[in-house]
Write a structure and sequence with these properties.
The chain has 200 residues and is of the alpha+beta class. The chain contains five helices and eight strands; from the N terminus they run ααααβαβββββββ. It has a single domain, classed as C8orf32 fold. It starts with 26 loop residues before the first helix and ends in a 9-residue tail after the last strand. The chain binds zinc ion (ZN).
Amino acid sequence: MRAAEPCPESAPWEHFHPSVIAHHGAECCDVARAWYTAMDRSMWRGHGGPSWISQRFPWGPSRWPLHWCEAMEAEELDCGAHAALSIEAFRARGIRVVPVQLVQRQEVHHLPHWHDRWGQADASPEWARAGACYHESCATIEDGRAEVWDPTIGAWLTPHHMHGIRSVAAVRIGGPVQSDEVVSWRGLPLRMGVWATPAL
Ligand SMILES: [Zn+2]
């Protein structure tokens, strides 16, 4: 297998794995997960993506590990939780879906506010750095084509948005397990499991 191109933008988050919601192995989480499945079935009719998730659980700090029973009682969830829940929703409809990790450009002036908010919630602020942030979403894959759903903003993303806020500085599709499979995200070829930077 060919070595991955070095990707300096993703370096601070190279060791981050896609978020997974934990299960206590007990009724508390069974009940919470069943509630989620029922909600998703009634709220999302399959057009677009499951945008109800971030409407019900607006974006904010989550403490990890996060269990199903905690997630479903949370007032806010972070992008990792949004992504994990979206993956469940797509999968429940028989759609092939994989985690997506992103580094997005952000304005520097948000940083102190985000660090305060996450700090006060006793959550890790490691995702936010000056000018760039780690973000999670998910991708549906069909016939070699990937479409990236951002559950936090409730929209499909494009790699062609390359400047300004939320533009993609780096992306990894499918988590840390490298494979020879290459998918096309709106014309951008991406090897699964490898961080890449959309060419400017
Ligand atoms: Zn539980």
